[in-house]
């Protein structure tokens, strides 16, 4: 359970005149957006109370505006001052802020309004799939996978992924070689202080219990991940020095 939760209620209503001037029909639409803290202080998880992605078997991670071209909602969220990253799960959206100095209290109203307006428009969150997105998911068991790889994929999909998504993140299986499982962390897991604990004490121990061939689990990072981690270290240093109000 998360340390803090908040519930944001957005109510939008409109009315129009009918052909009968004595009657004024109206309609109203409500969207309840729940906000959850994540283990990563640089990210928040937004739950609009409805499905975000049509295909719940996939997630989408956008670390830059250029990567977000396939998602109109992600592009709009990047326009909110302070947004550094956008991640879509089946029924949630994780937002990463760009700096420890950026206040969530200033960002939330614009994030709420953007999510509300877009989801109520009925437009698709993802308008087109890239070539990589059209390929089988990372944990799909392929005909050439041996028993060890098949078991690793099954465990990641059925046991690890739901746990990680609960915290607003996700994992991508990148391969198994010489006893090492290579994973990429996404969403709130990127740069998270507890990610190493999750990998070593959680994922690694579980995989080794069921698959003795697994010797280690390694996180594969890219440049964007390093930038997020750098910002997080600055944030933790500020907290330690007591400079944050």
Automatic annotation (TrEMBL):
Residue stretches making up the Scaffold protein Nfu/NifU N-terminal domain: 33-122
Gene3D superfamilies for this protein: Fe-S cluster assembly (FSCA), Scaffold protein Nfu/NifU, N-terminal domain
Family matches, as Pfam families: Nfu_N, NifU
SUPFAM superfamilies assigned: Fe-S cluster assembly (FSCA) domain-like, Hypothetical protein SAV1430
GO-annotated cellular components: mitochondrion
Record's keyword terms, sorted: Iron, Iron-sulfur, Metal-binding, Mitochondrion, Transit peptide
Organism: Steinernema carpocapsae
GO molecular function: iron ion binding; iron-sulfur cluster binding
Chief place where the protein resides: mitochondrion
Function: Molecular scaffold for [Fe-S] cluster assembly of mitochondrial iron-sulfur proteins.
Gene Ontology BP annotations: iron-sulfur cluster assembly
Highest taxon of the lineage: Eukaryota
Family: Belongs to the NifU family.
Keyword Iron annotated: yes
Protein name: NFU1 iron-sulfur cluster scaffold homolog, mitochondrial
Keyword Metal-binding among UniProt keywords: yes
Compartment(s) where it occurs, according to its Swiss-Prot or TrEMBL record: Mitochondrion
Xref: InterPro entries: FSCA_dom_sf (IPR034904), Nfu/NifU_N (IPR014824), Nfu/NifU_N_sf (IPR036498), NFU1-like (IPR035433), NIF_FeS_clus_asmbl_NifU_C (IPR001075)
């Amino acid at each position: 359970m998360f340390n803090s939760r908040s519930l944001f209620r957005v109510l939008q209503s409109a009315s129009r005149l009918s052909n009968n001037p004595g009657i004024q029909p109206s309609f109203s639409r409500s969207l309840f957006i729940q906000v959850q803290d994540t283990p990563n202080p640089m990210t928040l998880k937004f739950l609009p109370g409805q499905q975000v992605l049509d295909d719940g078997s996939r997630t989408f991670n956008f670390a830059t505006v250029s990567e977000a071209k396939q998602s109109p909602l992600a592009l709009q969220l990047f326009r909110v001052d302070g947004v550094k990253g956008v991640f879509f799960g089946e029924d949630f959206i994780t937002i990463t802020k760009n700096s420890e100095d950026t206040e969530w209290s200033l960002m939330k109203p614009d994030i709420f309004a953007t999510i509300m307006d877009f989801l109520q428009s009925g437009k698709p969150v993802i308008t087109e799939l890239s070539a990589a997105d059209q390929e089988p998911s990372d944990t799909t068991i392929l005909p050439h996978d041996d028993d060890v790889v098949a078991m690793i994929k099954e465990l990641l999909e059925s046991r690890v992924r739901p746990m990680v998504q609960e915290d607003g993140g996700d994992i991508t299986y990148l391969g198994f070689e010489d006893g090492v499982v290579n994973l990429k962390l996404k969403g709130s897991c990127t740069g998270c202080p507890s990610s190493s604990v999750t990998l070593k004490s959680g994922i690694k121990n579980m995989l080794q219990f069921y698959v003795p061939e697994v010797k280690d689990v390694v996180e594969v990072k890219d440049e964007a991940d390093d930038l997020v981690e750098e910002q997080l270290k600055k944030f933790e240093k500020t907290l330690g020095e007591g400079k944050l109000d």
